[in-house]
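hey so i finally got around to running the thing on that chain from the lab meeting. sorry it took forever, my laptop kept dying and i had to restart like 3 times. anyway pasting the input first so we r on the same page abt which one it is
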Amino acid sequence: MPQLLQAHALDLSELIHPGDTVLWGQANAEPLPLTEALMAQRARIGRFRVLLGIANSTTCRPEHAEHVDLLAYCGAGANRELGNAGVLDILPCHYSQLPALIESGALRIDVLLLQLAPADANGRYSLGIAHEYLLPALERARVVIAEVNRQAPRTFGERTLGAEDLDAILHTDRPPLENPPARIREADSRIAAHIAGLIDDGATLQMGIGAIPDAVLGALRDRRDLGVHSGSLGDGVAQLMQAGVITNARKNLDRGVTIGGLLLGSRVIHDYAHDNPKIQLRSTAYTHDADVLANLNQFVAINSAVEVDLSGQVNSEVAAGSYVGAVGGALDFLRGAARSRGGLPIIALPSTAGASSRIVARLNGPVTLPRSDAGLIVTEYGVADLRGKSLRQRLECMLQIAHPQHRAALEEQLCTVAGCPPLE
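ok and heres what got predicted. didnt touch it at all, straight out
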């Protein structure tokens, strides 16, 4: 039987050792009482490492680096402060690679902290808000510690847990973390209108995170029988399912079911997913699998970027010298959409950030997505379909979707695009 932990006397030092790597559910799946106790007891435990995903809390702070090595696959949320302070190391891998890295031990996980929903009548615990890369970690971790949160949604997924899978349990009753609604600007709405015009009835959608995906979902209320297969599921998905727009009725895989790895929204998605078999969470090994994605007909992948160059190369990681994004799952989904029958690989971004153009002659950060994988690039000024286009043709297409005030300057920099003859 697992050890029962008490909130007033929560001591993790007997379970977590110096040199351990600790992983927990990202974003709203974070077991906050456990992670806060871990950080409070860092000096007593001795130096250890944590692997972070999206951080929707400030549990980990720059001053903790005195006792904790901080590693993350992304710079999202509170991770940005850690990166700017110079204490965050980045794991630059595709999201689809995480399960194999964990399973092989190349990315060692010693301790796994989970937030679970209460046990059902059969004594089985739901993983609640996230499955994704937690499943392979369950098989590799030496110690599994669970917060069983009375208010966590009980979701359907690949597996449930029994008492035999857990080493210690802390019972709580608290609202899970939530994401505030994204602020949708005029440019986001214009981008969403362009993308919505490309999406037919029966398409299966994957959406990244942020205002543009939310705006796209809001622009699709007149569609029929849309499906969803995505890494994350937000409030917009719940709203379109309630409205009868997302039915998954035409999906050739997982028909009738919305598939995701993580709930990433507010109580809207948490409450809708609770005890709802029409939403199922799966591991990253499934949600990002190349063959699964390729076999989804009309698979539309919509992801964001920091900047895109005139040849179609994408930087999704670094902005103004700060690590703000991730390699993540964008390339996994874009390649899946490119192989899908009737699929659309889309990168969407506003044409500017302040006074700077986000369509650039030369990237200011790493090449996250190579130009060989370029699909459709969308800004508020239109759609540049780069599929099958030569470098010269791409330059012409990309200039048309750049902000008008930056087009002349971009034309003057065309010579920096390697391998392309000058425009006439």
